[in-house]
Amino acid sequence: MLNEIFGTDLITSKTNSTIVKIGKLSNKKYRNEEKLFVCDGKKLLNEAINFGAKIRYIIVKNDANFDAELINKIKNCKENGTAVLCVNEQVFEKLTEENAPQGVMAVCEFLKEMHTNSTTVENANSDEKIIMLEAVRDPGNIGTIIRNAAAFGIDRLIFSSDCADIYSQKVIRAAMGAIFKVKIDIVDDFVGTVKSLKKCGKRVLSATLGKNSLILGKIELRSQDVIIVGNEGHGISDEVIKASDETIFIPMCENTESLNAAIASSIFMWELYK
Hints:
Layout: H1 2-6, E1 10-11, H2 17-23, H3 28-34, E2 36-40, H4 42-51, E3 55-61, H5 68-79, E4 83-87, H6 89-95, E5 104-109, E6 115-118, E7 130-134, H7 139-151, E8 156-160, H8 169-175, E9 183-187, H9 190-199, E10 203-207, E11 214-215, E12 225-230, H10 238-243, E13 246-249, H11 261-273
Parallel strand pairs: 1-4, 3-4, 6-9, 7-8, 7-12, 8-9, 10-12, 10-13, 11-13
Antiparallel strand pairs: 2-5, 3-5
Helix pairs in contact: 7-8, 7-11
């Protein structure tokens, strides 16, 4: 059993104080108070280790099947101060949100090196590729956007503060490890950020259909262009559109529904990438 390999006691109680504390991390308010989030599964644990994240706890299901490489990585984490908690199946099931859990999860500290919360973004390099999201609340979309941003070389994502929480397990799962690879700014003053980016020499384009909207594919995007994608249901707010330089849209067949935020963002990312 893994508790013997890692030299720890086996936790069998769901009311264990540390288990209760970790369980509360499913709540955004508690995550923000503790500055901790959960990564579930072997891939995400490896991504956290490779990034050098500060891992507070590693929780393992006591009868899980781990290869020697993973066992050694967990031992190394323990030697560097990470608490390894071996739990029975019932306790692990209480903590995991996965349909097919792999028997291991990590509790990491917020990635302050990569992610910031602020009123506005004041500075941006001229060659930074930036995508902005306003009020995108679906965690699956947010996670997919983070994943695709890593794939297409986007340097920075800027989210309005009412987007889905980047540290929810649904976002972390959909991002597939890209949470450790993409710089993300979460801002309270979205309009103010648009204006700041324009002062930095950026051309800001809101993705919406308007009378004079630019057509993607018929204009050449530049590396200093910033694309804003909005909420699927309500689109981009009038205040943000007004603050932008231009509007732009993705041409589609008639009588079709608009693309969701993740797909639309990915198309713009590809255009910036190529």
